[in-house]
């Protein structure tokens, strides 16, 4: 009985770590987009959600309701276009 209970708690702990790790990665990604938009001197405040369109191409939604497409252009520069 104790072995079965320990296995269950181990599984719960592993799943919790996985979910929190994914959440931390998502938070870091939103912070990166927030910083990028701020460095481009565009109004945003904070990116609250992002949708990946393809590699290095995102739609970022800001707390102030602004939306930007953030991507790397053909010249290799990061660009943010208001949507």
Provide the descriptors you would attach to this structure in a database record.
83 residues
Q: Any chance you could write out the topology, listing elements then pairs?
A:
Blueprint: H1 2-39, E1 47-54, E2 57-62, E3 67-72, E4 78-82
Antiparallel strand pairs: 1-2, 2-3, 3-4
Task: Report on this structure.
There is one protein chain. With 83 residues, this protein is an alpha+beta fold. It has one domain. 46% of the residues lie in helices and 30% in strands. The protein has one helix and four strands; from the N terminus they run αββββ. A four-stranded antiparallel sheet has the order 1-2-3-4, with helices on one face. β1 and β2 form a beta hairpin. The termini are far apart. The N terminus is likely disordered.
């Amino acid at each position: 009985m104790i072995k079965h209970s320990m296995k269950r708690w181990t599984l719960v702990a592993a799943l919790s770590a996985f979910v929190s790790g994914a959440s931390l990665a998502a938070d870091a990604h939103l912070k990166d987009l927030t910083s990028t938009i701020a460095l481009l001197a565009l109004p945003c405040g904070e990116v609250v959600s992002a949708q990946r369109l393809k590699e290095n191409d995102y739609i970022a939604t800001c707390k102030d309701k602004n939306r930007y497409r953030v991507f790397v252009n053909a010249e290799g520069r990061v660009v943010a276009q208001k949507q």
